[in-house]
Amino acid sequence: MLGLQEGALIFYLLLGACMTPLIGLLALRAFKRAVAANMRGAEASLSFGAAEHSPQPRREPAAPLGFRVEEATSDKGTGSRDRMIWRMVTAHTVAGLVFGITAAILLLTLSGTELLPLRTAAVSLAFAWPTVLALLLLVGPDRRIQMRILFCYFGALLVLCVLAWLTGLSSFPLWNAEGDQNGGWHLVVPGFLTPAVLWAIEATPSLLLLLFLNRSVRSIGPLVLVFVVVTLAGSHVALSILAMEPVMRFAAGLAVATGLGALGAILGFALIGVLAAAWPAWRVTRYISDCYADKRFSDFMLTVTVIWLLETLLLASSLWREQAAIGLIAASVPFIAWLVTLHILLRPLARAAGGRPERRLLMLRVFGFSRRSQRLIDLIGARWRLLGGIDLIAAPDLAASIIEPDTFQEFVRGRLRDHFVRSPADLDRRIAKLDRAPDPDGRYRISQTFCSGEIWKQAVTSLMREASLVIMDLRGFGLERLGCVFELQTLLDSVPLSRLAILVDVTTDRDGLEQLARERWHSLDSSSPNLAIVPAELCLLDVSGSEAAAVLYRLALER
To answer: CB 3.0 to 4.6 Å from 211: which of 13, 17, 146, 304, for a disulfide?
Structure first.
């Protein structure tokens, strides 16, 4: 039959989750190569000297340039932005608890299990486990806040265990597969551990979510996972058809005639199912990408929705064993409840985002440090994207980690070249089309500008002029980094010092940086906003102690 076989759903989800990192890594590796190939010619532009930077007259500023080094070891008064992110945390927490409680009541009721308070609470907590994953993504790689989230969640589980101990819950045995009450070994679980055991039984299958949330492939993980699971479902349908007696007889005859054998026939049918499902899988992922391009949801909401859909499918597998088709229909109720609750709670944030003035953050960095740059953009994005968008000049170090679904689809279709700016006219169109509106959840997007050849200099200059804040990551900087030398001169010419923060650490050539900045400061563009600044201080944020604290401290000044 074509119905859902017991355990088949979990098997295909697990297999799809295992395949997603491998397929995603291969796809992103090809994407990085394509980005690098389209950028070729930019290397020659790095010889573009500071004196050639602008044809405008240059002038001496009113005051000499000084440096203010700030070392932040804790975030100081992040104020309204912290309140905004905690409101989002609260919304996702409440929606996750609604899912967990609804799922627990359905599972226990349809399985004929009594709804005891501790049992219901433990199972609810287990089904709400994806909330933790969503919150960890929401707050970014800030270890301090992440530890708070984990402490609260597992603290709640510990409270249930303490309540079980205080109420004197009796111990119960766990038997092995061959054991029973009359023979074989068994393990007696203390009563106070009952909530933890119930939690582990229901939450363990959802740990497969961690596979497609791997940071290396997270940007395209949802799309790849959906594509893989749909194609695997095609193989399941094909094998189900093969199980029908007439089809099986035909396949057996074909296997004998061709010499494929039984195994060859089975694999052949599975392959046919995969190929037949490839087109529907592509259409599904294309639809998701189109919805993202139309701003029906954000990249974060796409990932979170896939997380909860997978949890819903795991619940459906459990309810199928209890009530068959009725269980499958019932499994959709917690997901709908989660979706409605989250929409209601996020609506005020979305309205507030739409009424705020436009703000843009430009992030510049030393190319070639992928992991460090990924962490930084995640840290900045967790807070700043509640206020405005982030602009980047695309390069292989970050292009793959923050690739948007529609851009990835265009790459798969062989149209990545169309995304590259190659002329001033292309640049004007790109700047005009920058995504400045918030998504339905109140967060703004990260926009990458793909440049080929020397046009990157005009692009970064245009983005600087529109930026409300520029963060330049100069960890790993040396005077041989001519692209950063050009950007520093352009910043001094174009961006008020109050809107500029430079990140440094022990890997930064601090002496070379300060010497370079002082030299270029003596000859600024005649239209520079820094000409009349007194005193003139350039902020250097030392992130050697705590990158997260330093970044959050600087963002806290932007109110």
So the answer is: 17
